[in-house]
Amino acid sequence: MLEQPHNLKTIVEAIEIPDTYYDLARERYRTIGEHLVRDKSTVRLFEPDVHSQGSFRLGTAIRPLGEAEEYDVDLVCTLKLLTKEDVTPEELRQLIRGELDDYVARNAMKAPPRDRPRCITLDYSGTPSFHVDVLPCIPEDGVTVQGLAADWAIPIEWAELAIAITDKNDPKFREKATDWPSSNPDAYGRWFVERMSKTAAFREAKGLAELPVYKRKLPLQRVVQLLKRHACNFFADEPKYKPISILITTLSAKLYEGERSIEEAFWKIVPQLPAAVSSSNPSVPNPVNPLENFADKWVADSNYSHAYQDWCTQLNRDLTELTSGERDKREAVADRAFKASPKRSKVEMPHVHIAPTPVKSPQGEKPWRIGEAYH
Amino acid sequence: MKDDLRDQLNEVMDRYPGLRLKPGRSSCAQLEGEFAFEVTDGEFKSLQGNFLVKVSVPRTYPRSAPTVWELRGEIPSGVHVNPDGSLCLASPIDLDLALSKRPSLVDFLDRFLLAFLVGFLVYRKTGRFPWGERKHGVAGALQGIAEWLDCKPSKGIVVPCLRVFLPGHKPGNGENCPCGSGERYTICHEPRISELVREYGSQGMCEIAWRQLEILGFPGGFPKSRLRREQEEIILELLGRGRLMPTMAPNVHFGS
């Protein structure tokens, strides 16, 4: 068989990050975890636990579009023995922030931790450089967990993984409250892994389950990477309206039906994307916490829905050309839609030659005129 | 986005594969990229063009016209370019009459953008446009209308002629023609006006006439409430963006 230089798999290979980056990220959060449980740690008694969430957990991280190799790694930092009765969100933030200040000083990191609304960001310099977002949290209270399970038919073992998080913009940030913002990245991760292993072949494949999720590289993970990359490129000049990664991930995982190849999975998912989000009432609920709408910003600003539909239209065209077009066209699409041409490794985008469309002006008609009635 | 517009955008990208969608707004979809073409007949045997353009397509298309920008700066400002930098594709009445027939987006771009760019290539080759140029501003709009109505391009004549399209303004059988010829209406402009009404419908011509009157500074007694909001917006847009620039005069032949 002839080599297909620009099929979906080769694009994925061009945009995905090396396993060593995942290992490096893991090393980062291992050292943060160790710091929190060291003898002198102020939070050691609250049984701290640090693990990853987001694309580094799901194995769906992609290279950034620009030259700079910068990655966002999301970590969950739970103080497992604390409850909403023990601390206010602000106090929880201070506890963890204090330890992270100490961590940054001990590791001679240049930048101090940055406070963001829901997380604390650590900047690791070097190549690749990592921004590590630490999400301070405690386990969700029993009432909330029972509510999730009973009201939304979330399996109880998933509901129990829910966490209460802090948000500096929340009016109750400084109060002892029972209604902290809620999240559940662990259950989300399990849901995603369940979706991506939908086919028995994948569940039973020898040794696959023992691999870390990021090393499995199953079709759903690949499709998410491709869609994220396409969106990064499509929205490069309009990043505000780019669908957030978790929205793309959620829709893909919902629409995936266990297809065995990237092509099949892509064809299954992409044509269904336009109808997957209603324009009049945009909603992409978190599958493990339906109260959370990943498209919440879309409700007030209809530009989001329209830009999303435009993206779907272009995506569908590009997929068609990638899977059925001629070699030249595939090459052009890989380049223009994914910025993933082999030629592109380190250089600026070359000029893409597009063959002119022959337009034959009909005999006797003057194309710039509209006035047949004027003859 | 209505599926209809999505199909039309796809059709445009099929025909002009250098164009790609960019994230649009709720008001407009946006195409950007190379608008490449080759005109293969006519006096200039093979005219090839490749322009980098941005086309903003109102999601209500064909109720309002797309706006086009040329992005490499190959078309000097002043050469059929509006003050906001967009290309002046045609005079308001040309656009209005064309859109009232609900052309597909491909048809619209072929008829206006392709024609514009072909004209520009000829201009670049020969130093003159293959068609005459209309005047700028209101005078240009006036010329455009006068050509359509087959009357003199003066406000005193064009305005009464346009008013004929408004309800209740049709001259009686014995009355003189509003064009000021001194002839009776029925033997002077009645045939031309009936022809336009047959072609574009009486409601259609009424709305078009109202808009043109507004542009000329004569809101002609047509009740505003009967116009849809978008139409009012079009007028404001046309006035605000100074679309009233020269356009392709219809009588010059090229390529046949």
Tags for this model:
heterodimer, A: 375 residues, alpha+beta, two-stranded antiparallel ribbon, 16 helices, 10 strands, globular, disordered C terminus, B: 256 residues, Ubiquitin Conjugating Enzyme, 2 domains, four-stranded antiparallel sheet, 4 strands, 40% helix
Question: What do you see in this structure?
Answer:
The complex is a heterodimer of chains A (375) and B (256). By secondary structure, chain A is of the alpha+beta class. Chain A has one domain (8-344). Chain A is built from 16 helices and ten strands. Chain A has helices at 8-15, 19-37, 55-58, 89-106, 142-152, 156-159, 185-196, 200-204, 213-216, 219-234, 245-255, 262-269, 273-276, 296-300, 303-324, 327-338, and strands at 48-53, 70-79, 114-115, 120-124, 129-139, 163-165, 182-183, 285-286, 289-293, 357-359. In chain A, strands 1, 2, 3, 4, 5, 6 and 7 form a seven-stranded mixed sheet that branches. Chain A has a two-stranded antiparallel sheet with strand order 8-9. Chain A is globular, with a radius of gyration of 24 Å. The termini of chain A are far apart. Chain B folds into two domains: 3-126, Ubiquitin Conjugating Enzyme (Roll), CATH 3.10.110; 137-241, no CATH class. In chain B, 40% of the residues lie in helices and 12% in strands. Chain B has helices spanning 3-15, 92-99, 105-126, 137-149, 155-163, 190-200, 202-215, 229-241; strands at 19-22, 28-39, 47-58, 67-70. Chain B has a four-stranded antiparallel sheet with strand order 1-2-3-4, with helices on one face. In chain B, strand 1 and strand 2 form a beta hairpin. In chain B, helix 4 crosses helix 5 and helix 6 packs across helix 7 (202-215). The longest helix of chain B has 22 residues, at 105-126. Residues 221-230 and 238-256 of chain B have low confidence and may be disordered.
How would you summarize the topology of this molecule?
The complex is a heterodimer of chains A (375) and B (256).
Chain A (H helix, E strand, L loop, with lengths): L7 H8 L3 H19 L10 E6 L1 H4 L11 E10 L9 H18 L7 E2 L4 E5 L4 E11 L2 H11 L3 H4 L3 E3 L16 E2 L1 H12 L3 H5 L8 H4 L2 H16 L10 H11 L6 H8 L3 H4 L8 E2 L2 E5 L2 H5 L2 H22 L2 H12 L18 E3 L16
Parallel strand pairs in A: 2-5
Antiparallel strand pairs in A: 1-2, 3-4, 4-5, 5-6, 6-7, 8-9
Helix pairs in contact in A: 1-10, 10-11, 10-12, 15-16
Chain B lengths: L2 H13 L3 E4 L5 E12 L7 E12 L8 E4 L21 H8 L5 H22 L10 H13 L5 H9 L26 H11 L1 H14 L13 H13 L15
Helix pairs in contact in B: 4-5, 6-7
